[in-house]
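Issue: copy button drops trailing tokens. Both records pasted manually instead:
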Amino acid sequence: MLTVLGDPMAKLFLTEIPPRETIQEEARTMFPQVNPESWYSHILLRKVTTEFEINLDKFFSQYNLSSGRFTLMILLNKYVDGLMPSELAQMVGVTQATISGLINSLEKVEVVQRTTHEKDGRSYVIKLTEKGKKMTGEILPEYQTRINKFWSEFPSEEKTQINGYFERLIKQMKEIGQKPTAE
């Protein structure tokens, strides 16, 4: 069964993953060029990332936030002198339009404020308000506790191994988005 997440560009995901053998057999028969083990790994990775996002959204919705808005709050908490919208956009890998929407929503609930740039009066920086600082201070410990609990299932050696795999996956990720090469 496919479920649509609340996203302007709807993301579909499998709510239940068929057994490994079924996926591998379907890959062999329907797509002979696909490595069945790679296909299964891909489906598992997609499931993990999707479930992680869904559960982060559930957590942050308790505070009327999204993980994206909280990410901005964390950055602004770190950079107390504020950041320009273009700097925020670059740091989180989104467009200026997307960052403007996030800033506007946080400004509307008085979590951030725009202040004139110290060196360039035509520009502005985004800073956390006192309310934003307080919220960040309240949410961050609970968020960190949940992340620690999530990873507590894995001993240190396994986390080190998983981190190594993640680092390799990140390096490989650009391969997925590249245009196919002519053979």
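Record 2 (pasted manually too):
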Amino acid sequence: MTVTSLRLRALTPQDEAPARRAHDVMAREGFEFLLGPGHDGDWSDYLGRMEDHRAGVGRTTRRYLVPTG
């Protein structure tokens, strides 16, 4: 049996183009890749809101992570 490790991380400024493309592809299939409102606006604002969510600012903590590597 082969064991593969998977490391997860938060989205970064460098992820904007691939994340938006993934969101568009998945939206055509009826799925939402980027969470919450505002994902189509300013990317740095979106990342800030996601960080607030992770930290539990103003609401329950939630995390959105992507694989590294």
